[in-house]
Amino acid sequence: MSAARETILGRIAEALRLAAPRPHLSSDVPAGTPAKVGKAWLPEGGDDEEGRLALLEANLGKLRASLVRVPDAPAAAAALARLAAERGWKRLALHRGELTETVARGLPCETWCVDDGFDKDRLEACDAGLTACESLVAQTGSLLVSSASNGGRALSILPHVHVVVARRQQVLPDLEAALADARARHGGALPSMLGFITGPSRTGDIERILVLGAHGPKELHVILIG
Amino acid sequence: MRVDLFIPCFVDQLAPRVGLATAKVLRGLGHEVAFREAQTCCGQPSFNSGHWDVAREAALRALDVFRGAEAVVGPSASCVAMMRKFYPEVLAGHPRAAEAADLAGRTFELGEFIVRRLGVTDVGARWEGKATYHDGCHGLRELGLRREARALLGAVRGLTLIEAEEQETCCGFGGLFSVKYPMISTAMAQVKSDALVRTGADIVVSSDPSCLLQIGGYLGRQGKAVRTLHLAEVLASR
Amino acid sequence: MSPAPRDRFLEDAAAATADDPQRGFLRGALGGYYASRDVQKARYRDWEKARDAAALAKWTAVNRLDRNLARFEEAFVRNGGVVHWARDAAEARAIILGICREAGARSVIKSKCMTTEEIHLNDALEAEGFGVVESDLGEFIQQLRKEPPFHFVFPCMHLRRDAISELFGKHLGTPPTDSPEELTMIARRHLRDLYLRADIGISGANFLVAETGQVSITENEGNARLTCALPRVHIALAGIEKVIERLDDLAVLLPMLATAGAGQPMTCYNTLYAGPRRAGEADGPEAFHVVLLDNRRTALLADPEQRDALHCIRCGACLNVCPIFKNIGGFAYGTTYQGPIGSVITPHLRGLRNWNHLSGASSLCGACTEACPVRIDLHHHLLRNRRNAVRAHGGWADRLFHRAFGWVIARPRLFSLGGRLFRAALPVLRRLPLPYLRPWLRTRTLPEAAEPSFRQQAKEVLR
């Protein structure tokens, strides 16, 4: 145990001997975790599946991400092929997985799986990254990716375009549901990275004017099956 | 009801017309109005300067001065905030803390008293012209008053209320802040006053005489024709 | 010797407030923020109650800080990370330099982290020969300008695009442009290679999750994602107050951070890191260190009255709405953390004697407290700092003045007499400004004396 650790924890214990007053709240907050009690006050997440899908679509639109809804996997593959052709992609990176591999089959460009031996320069040279995701969040228009299920850390951030392919059943109402879903999937061993992505990369650092594609992807496309 | 006036010290000394108008409006609504002469200053200048011992003495005096009053009404959101919010704070743990809480519950800002306590918005006033309203920060954020003064002004015959930009922006008075940091205070007065002038209103109305001192002083130095009036003065005009 | 902080503040604030175009520019830049913030706030079913939930999340975490930090440490280590504790800035710098040396590193890429500004990390890294590059666009620009951040969330909001174009021309040799998009792309292209080559990535932390041992990082640009993905080693520097109890708390805190601070529904990237690359994961760093910094935060913790200042999630909302900040700008504060939160905490972190003037430089309008998503009692803390300063080292003249004032207002007859004298003298005072009135009179008039006073008329009128 380091001396610094002992000193700091000692200072904290000493400081906390005096109790602080509770914060001035606007209301009597019912008992429960902040997430549970806050759920009813945060932006809504849709009452049913249709509501969730409508909300997700509206939120993605405001975030300047695109949403393409397709009936099945072949249609998703066709949608991806259209994107690749329109934008003239030469190389697309993806990760191993039933959905991503099915959708990327027959693309009119070179494809490479990052799981086959990661190479950051090779990834940087790709025009687009294709990933699945853990879930989508209607409330905020976010999608949740993880290093365990979605090709590590760089695939969804380094290429200039990020394409996500997902199934309708993955659309969840809110952040709390998405976190609970990830926990249920991974149990005690959470992935080393779990990230919410809410729209394409952006900055307002210059005169508070919105510019897309600051360092991460300039474009974010969601292909939703079902 | 018997209403005891709580007249800010600088209204007493420099703008007695605001106190007179306050009395006139309340009497016009059929209430008995009294002024307890033992009152002086609420102690806010010392409180804001960190001299809470001086403020505590002022608070204890006020508890004596307004003992037994049914309703204490003042034409200044700032001084009322001192009594309602900060007397309990400087008297926290003091044997008379409960009295401070009790006084806090009986003290009202003028517009708040008329609208919330009496349930009246039309006091029978008439004022011809265009007016804009400045929210004093103490009224807005310590007392939570937003709609009261507007409801009252909305019922004044002949008066058109125009909302300004920077509606909830501070005028920069801040008591001794305006003297200790004059350049910041003046910059704030400029932003606020420019927005008020842009409305094209004939008068700037506020529930806080101290804000009017700042805004009126700045507009005066700028040679602007816009007049500043306290809410009570508008409500007292016929 | 450099001038005392208070003297420097007065000088800088005077210069900043005299610059009308710059003040107008800042107001304009924040105009869009107010509009989008209001749109997003309207999407909350109850913003005020959501603030209650967020405040409680932080209150619970901070008031069990020792337990929560120990839990975080245990979980973080279980995830394969290394925890370091630093009592002060020097210790934190030494730990980080040690990690860099041991890794045989040469280049460091950093994502935005105010705590590294607090400990002056870049100077220390450069002095040891490490190349260090800020990757957040605003921080990158400020690094090129050799200037600290102007605003702790919007580091270069004081700059116009032409100044940035000129800066890039000078340092990167790029042709002039007046397009913010093109300027952003210049930085994007320049930094890409640096991410790929950096040995070490240094980030901050927005939240440390005690329950799961995760470090949560919030950003818009993707630079932190890259910083935490590509280099061999990841170091996160975090103040000890960043810890929260549960992963679920983020369901409240993340959207509120985004809405309050930047008028967004969610910040673009909110990423939770639990240790280095795992077996079976495609990429990620070999090692992940977190450095937990005290640096007098425990002194603030020891003040239960102002302990809630440690709830701060550094969203910047209090700066965005502060009329003082908008008129004097960020540099005048002379602190790592500008605006109302900076004025509250700096006296605790760096000493009340030298930094209490920031608590005085406020009209106490309360816009900050109203904007704070975690309900820190900001403007009232400025009053408490003023009180503490008077108690600890008030000047005798000031004390005498207020004692005398208190003595007069306790005596209605004397008060009345004083008022009469003041009114009699007022016509002269208005023309012949005395030292105390001069600052007022330079820019404002005083009202004419009205006779007689209210109390003189009251007997007559209220009979």
Short recap of the structure:
The complex is a heterotrimer of chains A (226), B (238) and C (463). Chain A is an alpha/beta fold.
Short key terms for the protein model shown above:
heterotrimer; A: 226 residues; alpha/beta; Rossmann fold; four-stranded mixed beta sheet; 12 strands; globular; B: 238 residues; 2 domains; four-stranded parallel beta sheet; 13 helices
Layout of helices and strands, plus pairs?
The complex is a heterotrimer of chains A (226), B (238) and C (463).
Chain A: H1 3-15, H2 34-38, H3 49-62, E1 66-70, H4 73-87, E2 91-94, H5 98-104, E3 110-113, H6 120-124, E4 128-131, E5 135-137, E6 142-146, E7 161-167, E8 171-172, H7 175-186, E9 193-197, E10 202-203, E11 211-212, E12 219-225
Parallel strand pairs in A: 1-12, 2-3, 2-4, 4-7, 5-8, 7-12
Antiparallel strand pairs in A: 5-6, 6-9, 10-11
Helix pairs in contact in A: 4-5
Chain B: E1 2-5, H1 9-14, H2 16-28, E2 32-35, H3 44-48, H4 52-65, E3 71-74, H5 77-90, H6 97-106, E4 107-109, H7 110-117, E5 126-134, H8 137-142, H9 148-154, E6 157-161, H10 177-180, H11 182-198, E7 203-206, H12 209-221, E8 227-230, H13 231-236
Helix pairs in contact in B: 5-6, 7-9, 11-12
Chain C: H1 5-17, H2 20-43, H3 47-62, H4 65-78, E1 82-86, H5 89-102, E2 107-110, H6 114-118, H7 121-127, E3 131-134, H8 137-144, H9 161-172, H10 180-197, E4 200-203, E5 207-209, E6 214-219, H11 223-227, E7 233-239, E8 243-244, H12 250-262, E9 269-273, E10 287-293, H13 297-301, H14 317-321, H15 323-328, H16 339-350, H17 352-355, H18 357-360, H19 367-371, H20 378-393, H21 396-409, H22 412-431, H23 438-443, H24 454-461
Parallel strand pairs in C: 1-10, 2-3, 2-4, 4-7, 5-8, 7-10
Antiparallel strand pairs in C: 5-6, 6-9
Helix pairs in contact in C: 2-12, 9-10, 16-20
Overview of the structural elements:
The complex is a heterotrimer of chains A (226), B (238) and C (463). Chain A starts with a helix and ends with a strand. Chain A has 226 residues and is α/β, with parallel strands linked by helices. Chain A is 31% helix and 22% strand. In chain A, the strands form 3 sheets. Chain A has a 6-stranded parallel β-sheet with strand order 1-12-7-4-2-3. Chain A has a 4-stranded mixed β-sheet with strand order 8-5-6-9, with helices on both faces. A two-stranded antiparallel ribbon of chain A has the order 10-11. Chain A has one domain (19-225): NagB/RpiA/CoA transferase-like (Rossmann fold), CATH 3.40.50. With 238 residues, chain B is of the alpha/beta class. Chain B has 2 domains: 2-116, no CATH class; 122-236, Rossmann fold (3-Layer(aba) Sandwich). Helices cover 52% and strands 16% of the residues of chain B. In chain B, the strands form 2 sheets. A 4-stranded parallel β-sheet of chain B has the order 2-1-3-4, with helices on both faces. In chain B, strand 7 (203-206), helix 12 and strand 8 (227-230) form a beta-alpha-beta unit. The longest helix of chain B is centred in the C-terminal third of the chain and has 17 residues, at 182-198. Chain B is globular. The model of chain B has no long low-confidence stretch (mean pLDDT 97). Chain C is of the alpha/beta class and 463 residues long. Among the domains of chain C are: 44-295, NagB/RpiA/CoA transferase-like (Rossmann fold); 400-461, no CATH class. Chain C has helices at residues 5-17, 20-43, 47-62, 65-78, 89-102, 114-118, 121-127, 137-144, 161-172, 180-197, 223-227, 250-262, 297-301, 317-321, 323-328, 339-350, 352-355, 357-360, 367-371, 378-393, 396-409, 412-431, 438-443, 454-461; strands at 82-86, 107-110, 131-134, 200-203, 207-209, 214-219, 233-239, 243-244, 269-273, 287-293. In chain C, helix 2 (20-43) runs antiparallel to helix 12 and helix 9 (161-172) packs parallel to helix 10 (180-197). Chain C is globular. At the A-C interface, helix 1, helix 2, helix 6, helix 7 and strand 9 of A face helix 2, helix 3, helix 4, strand 1 and helix 8 of C. Strand 9 (193-197) of chain A pairs antiparallel with strand 9 of chain C.
